Amino acid sequence: MAYQTVSLPSFGSVRMDLTEGLLRPDMSPDACNVDTRSGALKTATGFSRVMSALAEADTPFERMYVYATERGDRYLAVAQNMMYLYNAVSQTWRALYQFERDVTGERMDFQKVRIGTSDRLLIACGKEQMLTFDAGTDLIDVFGTEQKGSDKAVSFIELYFGRLFAAGDPRAPSRLYWSKAPGGGRTIDDWRSDDTSENVSGGYVDVGVDDDPITGLFAMSNQLLIFKRDSLYRLLGDRPGNYRIVAVDAAFRQPLHTACVRYADRLFFLTESGLCFYDGQTVRKSAAFCAFGPLLKSANLSGVRAAACGDTLYFAIRARYGALYNDTLIEYDVLRDRFMLRNGFTVVDLNTVHGALYLLTGEGKLVVFDENNSYDGDPINAWWTTPALDLGRKDTNKTLLRLTATGAGRMNVRVVSDGGTYETSVLLSDVPLGVTEIPLRGVGRMFRLRFSSVNGGSFALDAPVTLLFDQQRRP
Fold first, then answer.
1. How many CB atoms lie within 10 A of CB 138?
2. Which domain, by its residues, includes 423?
């Protein structure tokens, strides 16, 4: 047999759930911090700090929120016992509000609302009465009153057909509250019933049973989803006179409230079993439901955070045992049905504002993803590994000779075969249409290639790449 060539056609998604022999050459069982959206392989872009000052707290951080207003953005960081606000004038973080009891991020929610003629950020924490933040004065106030029935210590809030819905009251764990319809002097901080008209009235209803508490609320275009610990319901109708609450017949692992994210009137959420979505009628598994099955099985999902930016969904998880904060970011490109991983930083929370993805790290850095070639000064260690390849012939020995490619930057290439491991570093040609030939070594029936960055530097590898090898039948 003579010299032969084979092309690696493109670079695509990470798949950990299939044995390598079943993976297409464009799939990877192990890749991180790379961008393959165009089919080429390049180091992913990083993020930059929004402000130089670090948020500092005596207790661990739980949440973060970027409140966009006409007067400019306000940046909030929430620790277990304190809420902090960034002061742009003094360029420092200051204590904004002290909680009566320590709060947890999984039972906190934020909602931009309008009360009368004023815009506010509504903050629910499940431990005390809800709060409102006024961006005009940068002050915190208490939301609602006992007289109006809106003084409940709820955890989950949502706007649906103009009304404020709330749940997670520790004294009534299965109770769903709703406000009066705003207008005509009525405001969403009034949850009382109104005898003059059922359709403008506030009220509440107990959904299911108390030993199955409500764990999340999400408004879709024509329904309100009510997640419970062991079940899922949906509220249909646009006013109390025609409200109907219907159980959704679907078997799935219940997600955290913070593991859910809306995209194109679908609700995606990450569970221990994989990625699911609600399509308006029932819960379905994503096409690559178990792509990260082995990773999720060993990960800690007790503090998942999720966000959508453009056509990409982000889920932050704790992949490292004992980690205080999420340390791995799962990216899901919805249009291309592709997954990728990122690491090298910690994640307290994610927030999308003005089409940009913001992140608060465990060190108190508030950053925004951009075109930076580092993670705020920390190197981006990127790699992409081919599946184990036999080129359709397990009965022959392949002697790897040369890889021919185009691209830019310095990159490591590692060859692993049953004959050993060989690694080389190469500077790809930066001449337009320049081709780089990379000598390889390795003999075996099967082999695997790994492309990686050098000392955190950026590289780009165009697709396809061509592999020259000698194939000989085994005696």
1. 14
2. 3-44+383-473
